[in-house]
Design goal:
By secondary structure, this protein is mostly helical. It has helices spanning 19-30, 40-46, 61-81, 112-117, 120-123, 126-135, 152-155, 157-176, 178-190.
């Protein structure tokens, strides 16, 4: 229920309701024609936070959860498959130990050492992903209600932008499939963050 008179001081927060800026953001993020990848309801749902209209119109939590899992998976795969330059080589064992054992080595395991040096959480840091989302124009189209309209950082705009970024990846995965979502993650998220994707 909405009160007829605003009882808290402060300026009301204006939320985008026009499809043109939303389509422009999808074209920037997904590429030319990206605004046609999702239907209208899903496009709006992916950029809607649960604070908007008290969650009555639906929100992006479930799509964001799926998108976050996809982004983390492909980030880990990119780290494992990245070249090992800059990582000190482990000394090769030329002789066997006293029990005549040799350590197991395999080319597929060569990239595992990258995980100890490059952390997934450092690459997918909230502030880095929020800057990337702002580059795509996500902050101007997300639908949410900040705690304080005059202090968006204090109200958590970074978290809301990152959640919308994940939700768009989840929505693409649900409507276009995992292969297309993986391509979006590699080309539009990991490469701009500086991760070498092979």
């Amino acid at each position: 229920m909405v009160a007829p008179v605003r009882h808290r001081p402060g300026t009301p927060f204006a939320v985008n309701s026009k499809p043109a800026p939303l389509n422009k953001m999808y074209n920037l993020f997904l590429g030319p024609g990206g605004n046609k990848w999702l239907n209208e309801d899903v496009k709006w749902l992916a950029v809607t936070h649960k604070s908007f209209d008290h969650g009555r119109r639906g929100f992006n939590d479930r799509m964001a959860y799926l998108g976050k899992r996809i982004v983390h998976l492909h980030t880990t795969l990119a780290i494992i498959n990245s070249p090992t330059s800059g990582i000190p080589e482990t000394p090769t064992v030329t002789s066997q130990d006293a029990a005549e054992r040799t350590p197991f080595t395999h080319p597929a395991l060569a990239g595992l050492e990258n995980l100890s040096i490059m952390k997934v959480d450092e690459i997918l840091d909230k502030s880095r992903l929020a800057q990337l989302g702002n580059r795509y124009g996500l902050a101007s189209v997300i639908r949410w209600k900040p705690k304080k309209a005059d202090n968006l950082m204090g109200s958590g705009i970074e978290s809301v932008v990152v959640e919308a970024l994940y939700a768009i990846v989840g929505a693409v995965a649900l409507s276009k499939g995992g292969t297309v979502a993986a391509t979006v993650v590699r080309e539009k998220i990991l490469q701009p963050l500086g991760l070498v994707v092979g």
